[in-house]
C-alpha cells in the first residue's frame, strides 16, 4: 500500500496501522526489549567511554571524573527516592557520613578487602536509612524534609564529640593500591566509575520491576495504592533505605577520594546541593544524574576561576559557587522544567522529527511537563493495578492493611440477569 505525498516526487510506503513511527524509520537500530540485556549493553558502552576518557586526560582530571562518578551514585538513590517515590530528603549528606566513617573505622581497626569494606559501609547506611525511614514514612513531604534536615545538622556534631571518630580532625583513609604500573588516581577513578555503573544498572532494573511500579503507585496516590494491596509504609521505607545505601556508598568513595573523613567534608550545604543537582539533571532520570554530578564537581572550579579573573575578595569567592549554581538552576528550570535531561530529550526528538520524520508532534519542555501531569493522572490507575498484581497480596486492602471483603461465589444479580 502506497500513498503520494504532496511535497514529494514519488510514492512513500505507508506505515502499518497502529505504528507510531513512519515506515522509513523502521530500519533504525533498536536496543533489545529486555531491560536487563539493554542495560548491560548500555553499561558496557558507558564503561568503554569512561575508559577512553580516563586514559586520555591528566591525573587531576581523573580525580574530577571519579568525583563525578561518586556523586552520580548518591544522586541515583536520591532520584529514586524523590522522582519515583515522591519523598523529599534534605539530609543525604548524613548518610554519606555514615558510609564514610564506617569505611574509615574498618580501615583503622579491622582492615579487609576494599570491596568488602564498601559493601559493609553501604549496608550500614542502609540500616540507618531503615531507622530513619520507619518513623519518617508517616510524615508528609515538608515534615519529612524537616526531619532529614535536622539529621544533616545533628549527625556531624555527634561525630565530632567522640574520640573514636577522630574528633574535629576526623579519620584518615588508605586509597587502594593500583596493580602494576597503573596510576593510583586512575585506578581509584575506575573503581568509582564501576560502582556508579553498577548502581545505575541495579536501580534501572529495579525501577522496571514490581518494586518500581509500587514506588510510582505510592507516589501518585497513596490511598489508591493501599486499596490495591500495596503496603505504603513498607514501600516508603524500602525506597528510603535504598536511597540511603546509595548515599553511604558515595560517602565511602568520597572518603577514599579525599583521604580523610571529618565533619567538614559533609556540611549541610552538601545535602542541599545534592537535591538541587538532582532537580537540575532531571528528577527520576538515571541519565540526568550525570548532568547534576557534572554541575556539582565543575561549578566550584568555574567559580574559583571566575573569582580570580574578577579579582574578588575571599568572602565573595566563598559564596560565588552557590550563587552561580542557584542561577544555573533557575535558568534551567525556566528553560526546561523537566531538567537538563528533559530538555536534551526534547531537542533530540525535534531533530529526529526534522531529519527522519519521527513523532508527528514534539512539545516544548514546559508543555511536556504540563502534559506529563495529565498523562500521569491517567496512568495512575494502570500503575497501581500493575503494582498490585505483583505485590504478592491475596487481595486488596484498606489503608491500615486490613483486607477488604471479597466475593467467593457468583453474583446474585448475574444469575438473575441470566434468567
Tell me about this structure:
- This protein is 68% helix and 2% strand.
- The protein is mostly helical and 419 residues long.
- It has a domain at 33-174 and 183-302.
- It has a two-stranded antiparallel ribbon. It has a two-stranded antiparallel sheet with strand order 3-4.
- Residues 1-15, 18-27 and 367-419 have low confidence and may be disordered.
Question: How do the helices and strands line up, and which of them pair or pack?
Answer:
Layout: E1 2-4, E2 11-13, H1 35-54, H2 59-84, H3 92-109, H4 114-136, H5 141-161, E3 171-172, H6 184-207, H7 210-220, H8 222-227, H9 232-258, E4 260-261, H10 268-281, H11 288-310, H12 314-335, H13 339-355, H14 365-389, H15 412-418
Helix pairs in contact: 1-6, 2-6, 2-9, 2-10, 2-11, 3-4, 3-5, 3-9, 4-9, 6-9, 7-9, 7-14, 10-11, 10-12, 11-12
Low-pLDDT residue spans:
1-15, 18-27, 367-419
Mean pLDDT: 79
Give a short account of the largest sheet. 2 strands, antiparallel
Which shape, going by the Cα principal axes?
globular
Rg to the nearest angstrom? Answer: 25 Å
Count all strands and give the number: 4
Number of alpha- plus pi-helical segments: 15
Q: State the distance separating the first and last CA atoms.
A: 50 Å
The arrangement of helices and strands along the chain is: EEHHHHHEHHHHEHHHHHH
Binned, the helix content reads: 55-70%
Helix/strand class: mainly alpha
Order of strands in the sheet with most strands: 1-2
Beta-strand content bin: under 5%
Amino acid at each position: 500500500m502506497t500513498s503520494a505525498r504532496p511535497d514529494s516526487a514519488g510514492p512513500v510506503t505507508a506505515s502499518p496501522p497502529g505504528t507510531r513511527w513512519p515506515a522509513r524509520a523502521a530500519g533504525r537500530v533498536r536496543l533489545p526489549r529486555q531491560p536487563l540485556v539493554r542495560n548491560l549493553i548500555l553499561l558496557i558502552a558507558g564503561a568503554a567511554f569512561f575508559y577512553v576518557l580516563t586514559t586520555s586526560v591528566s591525573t587531576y582530571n581523573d580525580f574530577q571524573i571519579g568525583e563525578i562518578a561518586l556523586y552520580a551514585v548518591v544522586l541515583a538513590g536520591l532520584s529514586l527516592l524523590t522522582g519515583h517515590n515522591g519523598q523529599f530528603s534534605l539530609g543525604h549528606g548524613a548518610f554519606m557520613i555514615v558510609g564514610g566513617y564506617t569505611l574509615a573505622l574498618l580501615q583503622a581497626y579491622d582492615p579487609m578487602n576494599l570491596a568488602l569494606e564498601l559493601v559493609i559501609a553501604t549496608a550500614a547506611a542502609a540500616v540507618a536509612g531503615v531507622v530513619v525511614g520507619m518513623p519518617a514514612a508517616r510524615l508528609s513531604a515538608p515534615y519529612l524534609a524537616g526531619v532529614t534536615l535536622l539529621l544533616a545538622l545533628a549527625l556531624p556534631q555527634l561525630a565530632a564529640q567522640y574520640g573514636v571518630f577522630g574528633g574535629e580532625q576526623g579519620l584518615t583513609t588508605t586509597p587502594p593500591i593500583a596493580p602494576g604500573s597503573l596510576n593510583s588516581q586512575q585506578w581509584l577513578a575506575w573503581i568509582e566509575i564501576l560502582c556508579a555503573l553498577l548502581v545505575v544498572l541495579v536501580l534501572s532494573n529495579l525501577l522496571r520491576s514490581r518494586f518500581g511500579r509500587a514506588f510510582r503507585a505510592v507516589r501518585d496516590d497513596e490511598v489508591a495504592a493501599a486499596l490495591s494491596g500495596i503496603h505504603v509504609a513498607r514501600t516508603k521505607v524500602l525506597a528510603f533505605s535504598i536511597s540511603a545505601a546509595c548515599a553511604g556508598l558515595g560517602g565511602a568513595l568520597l572518603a577514599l577520594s579525599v583521604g580523610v573523613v571529618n565533619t567538614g567534608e559533609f556540611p549541610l550545604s552538601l545535602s542541599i546541593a545534592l537535591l538541587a543537582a538532582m532537580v537540575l539533571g532531571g528528577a527520576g532520570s538515571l541519565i540526568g544524574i550525570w548532568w547534576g554530578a557534572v554541575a556539582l564537581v565543575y561549578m566550584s572550579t568555574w567559580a574559583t576561576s571566575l573569582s580570580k579573573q574578577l579579582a574578588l575578595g575571599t568572602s565573595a569567592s566563598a559564596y560565588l559557587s552557590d550563587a552561580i549554581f542557584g542561577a544555573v538552576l533557575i535558568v534551567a528550570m525556566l528553560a526546561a522544567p523537566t531538567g537538563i535531561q528533559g530538555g536534551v530529550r526534547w531537542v533530540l526528538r525535534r531533530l529526529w522529527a526534522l531529519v527522519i520524520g519521527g513523532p508527528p508532534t514534539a512539545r516544548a519542555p514546559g508543555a511536556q511537563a504540563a502534559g506529563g501531569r495529565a498523562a500521569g493522572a491517567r496512568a495512575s490507575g494502570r500503575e497501581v493495578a500493575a503494582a498490585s498484581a505483583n505485590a504478592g497480596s491475596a487481595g486488596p486492602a484498606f489503608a491500615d492493611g486490613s483486607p477488604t471483603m471479597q466475593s467467593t461465589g457468583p453474583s446474585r444479580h448475574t444469575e438473575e440477569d441470566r434468567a
